Batch of 4 targets.
Target 1
Amino acid sequence: MSFSKFSESDVFETYRAAFSIPIDWSSIFEDEIYQWLSIFEKGKNCNLSLTIPALLGLTASLSGPNTRIKGHGNGFSTSTNLYLLAVCDPGGGKSITFENVIEPVLSHIFEKTGIRIGNESYTSAGLQRHQIASKGTGIITSDEGHRFLASVNAKQAKGEAERSYLCKMWSGKGDYVELSTGSRGFQKTSMSMCIYIQPHPLMSELSNFSGADGFMDRILLVVSRPVLFPTAIVKENYELLRETGMESVKDTFYYMYLSLKEGVEYTLSEDAQSEYDGMVDSYAELLDEKYQMHLDEDENKENVNDIDIACTQTNLCMSTSKDTIHVLRLAAAIHILSEFLKATLMKVLDLNWKVEDVISLACLRRARLLYSCLARQKSIFAQVIVI
């Protein structure tokens, strides 16, 4: 069914069903951090469900291409890349959040280093040029993200490889070749994404997606209703924000960029590792049951041509191998962001300060809770995709 046939009321009902799945941000961050986030939200009039995707996306990007997160004792590790789409109706605060959170960080880093972290060229050539210039760090971001999805769809329709290129970059892998005259490209990347988009253009582009390359498996949706605060509340909380000494996050992220440039290896605490191993084992059992069930059904079919081949892209929010990686990366992003925000609030953040490199069980559980909410929200929108 094509989304173009949906009425405005159909669009809104889908959107409402998604944002009605609540995300309790006080359960995702420690009390000290949540208290500051709440003051920032009201003092800057920036919806928390639009602010936090920006903070997580910037954290994933500025952790750098050399940072890794260990997930198993067998040597498995993953990069920090996160692809986030923040979905909100017109007038809901997307632009003001972009202007208060993302733009100041990117501008500050450029002023200090001359390096442009933000990227608005979505072609393979444009992405490669950007990554070479930024040494593998970057974020795809916009306060009106329709152009990004439309560009990716248009390129895919022409048989071009932007989507597979973005899939590869999500895995932390660059585009690198050795030549007789030297080398070309970049080997590793922390390219991440935080794009703000309205529900209608999002659904329109999703309905035009084709192919089962796993591109949408790599994307997380954060869906929010519009939230704007009365002037009196904004004024009151802006004064409280000034008292915290952290009116902006630009210095926090500048120090993050400098501190993590060489890379850090994050590990899970012993009890967090045990719980994460259980998650991985649970998926392995589910996978085994799924294909054993298909084998049992196939044995009863007389004609091999009758065998059904399931397409993983048709049910984006069912358990996939990406689920555990999403949780691990969200845990790392929440951990790193929280550590840097706490250091800023305590006024101890400088180049001699070092971030804790062990992720706790509590942090892993916060990431699991957040991912569960995001997956449920995404499942509502996934219903409009036509393969």
Target 2
Amino acid sequence: MADSITRALNAGTAPEATRRAIADAVNAVYVGAACAAAPAFLVLLLVPAPRRFPVRQDQHRPAADGRTPSAG
């Protein structure tokens, strides 16, 4: 389907109105994608990411100071 549309547009057999309609539709898709991406990008910039994640000690490995971790 898309190949036949592309061939018709390149061959000049499609009316000018059809060419403009397809160009406008493609532009609308790009504008819509940009409008969706901009707020998503701002959210990623503005929402603070955690600087440190809690680290769980392994039950069988002693802690760095030599103590064994408590159960629980």
Target 3
Amino acid sequence: MLLAYLVAKKRILVLVCLWLACLSVCLRLFRSQRVLLSMSQLPGVPVKPNPVQDELIDAVLTFPLLTDPHWNSHGYRHLTYQQREARMDEYIESLANTLAHPRIGSVHCLYDQEALVGYVRRTISSNKLKFHYHNETHLALSLFRFAFQSLHGHLVMVLQADTYPAHGFQYVVGATMRKKNLFYALTRHGKMEATCDMHGDFCDDREYVGSHDAYIFVPTGELSARHGDVLNKKTMSWGVDLVIAWVFDDMGYRVLNPCKVIFLYHLHCTWVRDVGRVRVNTFNTTGWFPPTTSLS
């Protein structure tokens, strides 16, 4: 009897210990979930949506065929053919990176040089890449007018051709963009590229100089003639990004620069630039939106 009693008591003690261990694990899990929940409610810590269930983005961009002998711009006359070719390589690499991004559904490339299409297709073959002939592709107005006329209601990203999307795009939620009428004017980042070190981060409170390189929004309504006139600037002009941000703020969009969360990389190892650029923003058409972690 005594032996049976001791065995039964030992079993009870084992069960109690197992129960207490399970309770301890459950309490730790509960506390960790409370910590994660409280973190997600802190300013600057976005709640991660499911990127698989969210819609894809239509990217819109343009770039000239610098090696075309029939094309010449005063600001590029000083370049050798090798310099032009190297700059084209950067455009092609950036385009390939954009096409490969999982959140990009289509890339709409506007062009006004017939030879550009063949040049790109000799290197890149993708069903996601669409070409659209358009006059005056060098104007910011052309890109945004295309978005309003051809991609009305879509989730759109207009971007410079030497930049490409990276991480953080799971935080771009189409439903939220529509509900809150958001416009993300993103500042680029830099990293080590194959041919140079592009480190130098404008998405920094101390380094921000008003630079924006990609614009994510849902085009709704119409682009008015007044705003169209303001956007009628060359995409390579100094300050055109500030003008774009100002226009959409004036249109009633909530403009933010969440580049601390959504990353865009810049590829410009050649440092080839249009030397004829002029500044186009004025005191009344300057949208100043410093880096933030806020998404809405």
Target 4
Amino acid sequence: MPWGSHFRTASTTKAFVATVVLQLAAERQLPPDDTVEHWPPGVVSGNGNDGSRITVRDLLRQTSGLFDHVDDPGIQRMLRAHFDENRYNGNVDHLLKDESLGLRLLWAEERQLRQEISGVTATDLEDPARFVRPGEVVLSGLVWWTAEGGRDKAERFVSALRTAGAAVLLAGEEPHGAVPDDLIEACARHGVPLVAVPAHIMFRAITDTVYFQQWGELNRLHALPENVRVRLSRLVTQDAGPT
């Protein structure tokens, strides 16, 4: 990874930071009721913030009242620019042509099969819009769907994907034996490509396939360390699949 790289770790860091802080608290080096002002004086001040009234415990509980930096316009611009610059140039059709996955197209317009894939997310929330980014492959085991009220549930789920800009919905066949007609009809109404995932295919295999291709693209752009680029190049040459 080159110096100066930007990538979104998001909430992944919370658990690590909290663990280290609690370890320091157990060692009596960082009392949780100490104020922020006590440790980095002057860092939290202005804009209505007062570090002398915010404790370490408040930070860990996310009850400090501080502005969420992710909502800052500058941060948003940076995230969007980085996202666009490093988009994976694979598309939905590439996944369908991978015989090892055995995916089956249920509905899509021809042009949608050429849409670029930005990543993968797996969800079984009834309304997944908050957690789906534009251009993502959405994997769902359809745990949220039931025969009773199935049409309305499918409508809500697919509408959320449409709003979020998902590239394609990959629906698992195992829970219900087949992808429900309610879901196929909802995808057709909202224009969301729908693909069936055979019961014997693990979602991990699909995720690995997408990100293995993305790593290959990063390798081409020399955005990976030399030893990783060499290893990936060797695997690609050997037509190796995800491990």
